[in-house]
Design a protein that fits this description.
The chain has 193 residues and is α/β, with parallel strands linked by helices. The protein is built from eight helices and six strands, in the order E-H-E-H-E-H-E-H-H-E-H-E-H-H. The chain has a six-stranded parallel beta sheet, with helices on both faces.
Length: 193
Amino acid sequence: MKIGLYFGTFNPIHIGHLIIANHMAEYAGLDQIWMVVTPHNPHKKKETLLEDHQRLQLVYLATEDYPKIKPSDIEFKLSQPNYTVNTLAHLQDKFPQHIFSLIMGEDNLKSLHKWKNYEVIMQNHEIYVYPRISSEIENLAFKNNPRIHFIDAPIVEISSTFIRENIKNKKNVQPLLPSKVWEYLDYNNLYKK
């Protein structure tokens, strides 16, 4: 099976994440998308970051009606700080029957050359890139690389930061969240302080 890995803190997961994940599952030739919840870095204090298992629960709630999209806590089990190259190696060892690819926005592709062992990632894995507003690919080596696929996915400009700030400011952001995610956040009074 071809698995696309979509990494994120998902703090919280919102409809923009689902639009991208579903588009990749339906139109990029991938069989499944695994939403890999990035664990909290113990060396970074971030008060607005929900606990790892709460964010994983939100991803479960958001994806349960999408058979091709699965939550993943794989990075919770790896030593910190964690690097994508290590996660990919771990997954390939654990699931040798699958082919793993990365999903990222054009903005992340710009900084890919700064990632640990990015050459190893590019040598062993395909990368599926979704567009971002005002994002130009300056590195032509990436632009013309046959392992990098630019997918004409919808441009979604919704951010988790915007959602958190507006929940705190008592604004209605319900349309930006899957209904079960909204209900969980509201019931548990999350992001309100």
